[in-house]
Amino acid sequence: MAATSATTFSIGSTASAGPKVGFSQSKAFSIKLNPKKYLRSFSGLKAASSVSCESQSSFVGSESTLVLKQSYNTKARKCSQRSFSHVQPQASYKVAILGASGGIGQPLALLVKMSPLVSALNLYDIANVKGVAADLSHCNTPSQVSDFTGESELANCLKGVNVVVIPAGVPRKPGMTRDDLFNINANIVKNLVGAVADNCPDAFIHIISNPVNSTVPIAAEVLKQKGVYDPKKLFGVTTLDVVRANTFVAQKKNLKLIDVDVPVVGGHAGITILPLLSKTKPSVTLTDEEVQELTVRIQNAGTEVVEAKAGAGSATLSMAYAAARFVESSLRALDGDTDVYECSYIQSELTELPFFASRIKLGKDGVEAVISSELQGLTEYEQKALEALKPELKASIEKGVAFVQKQPVAA
Ligand SMILES: NC(=O)C1=CN([C@@H]2O[C@H](COP(=O)(O)OP(=O)(O)OC[C@H]3O[C@@H](n4cnc5c(N)ncnc54)[C@H](O)[C@@H]3O)[C@@H](O)[C@H]2O)C=CC1
Ligand SMILES: O=C([O-])CC(=O)C(=O)O
After folding, report:
1. Closest listed ligand to the CA of 304
2. What is the mean pLDDT of residues 338-353?
3. Lactate/malate dehydrogenase C-terminal domain spans which residues (predicted)?
């Protein structure tokens, strides 16, 4: 199941910040964001030639497909006129998706298949993955798609993988909280991360399965027990909170969607999701009522989708988009891009909580820096919300840690 192509698309995603900074979680440092560079990089899926030539156009933004095609043709021509060093094929990373036949897994697999940085795309699930892989393998983009079904094939799926994405597990139904998923998903994440520890301990691990506030501490505990925990390489995927915050603020202020960036900190459930609207780039003026309305909408956005789907699951397409953006950012960091920033839920010393989502700088070895400056100079509203979220987040972290400590993993 292999495929090659003449045309691929890349997912541009990261915020750029000024100075290069070293890995330091406890020490505060200030970072100046260069708005122009910053905004340019938040442009979603971008047209590119098979040889990674970036376009400013985004077909998930406001431009039409026609504009995209025209832009692509122009850019491709321009790129082909540039030096050869610009046009080296870059596909060289292996990505595995665990839970690949699910509502998130399938569109995520498609988006990752479109990345020019991916050479192998390994799809794992307990069911239905053969069909998904056969279907996807007909797309003429560089990566080779392989399917792996059931536990006996999990080890082979993970060998040599650089980035493992985990959307395996059950989604919410109306009336449920994310924590209601704990009893089923905790075990799924525990077992899958155990296999990651055994087969690709150096990989970046992206946890999507809910409740993220607990499943990331579960993953950390498993990796510790296996003796391979590297906190810089374990990420709770909270990109969807940022994507939503950007969208809702842009809509409210009539801004171009791709132009807005709002950092979202804390965790990924209810009030633990804290958008720092005062840190929005470009700076926007919001009334107290608008701040309250936007904050509550961002915190309840998952529930908004769960209710609209009326029993058919939770966010899948927007989640796949957000997860693909985080994958692409990770691959770019692995590939040596020194200008990659995302928000993510990680082991952290930014607050007294052992895990906390904030903006981070990604590098070849994972988290290179935590952007602590964004937690400084908060408004009174944000400061209160930050204090209010801590007890709930702390309890979710402790629940995850206790779960693994009560049922240790096999060495
Ligand atoms: N972090 C975030 O922002 C978000 C997280 N989620 C979470 O993502 C998870 C997945 O959601 P959906 O894709 O909509 O669910 P889904 O039910 O459509 O897909 C889940 C997939 O996982 C597979 N699976 C179950 N047990 C497995 C195992 N042991 N090994 C491998 N695969 C296994 C299932 O066969 C299924 O294909 C849920 O827990 C959901 O709450 C959803 C949206 C946003
Ligand atoms: O709400 C859910 O259950 C899924 C989720 O995490 C989100 O959409 O943010």
Report:
1. 2
2. 98
3. 238-404
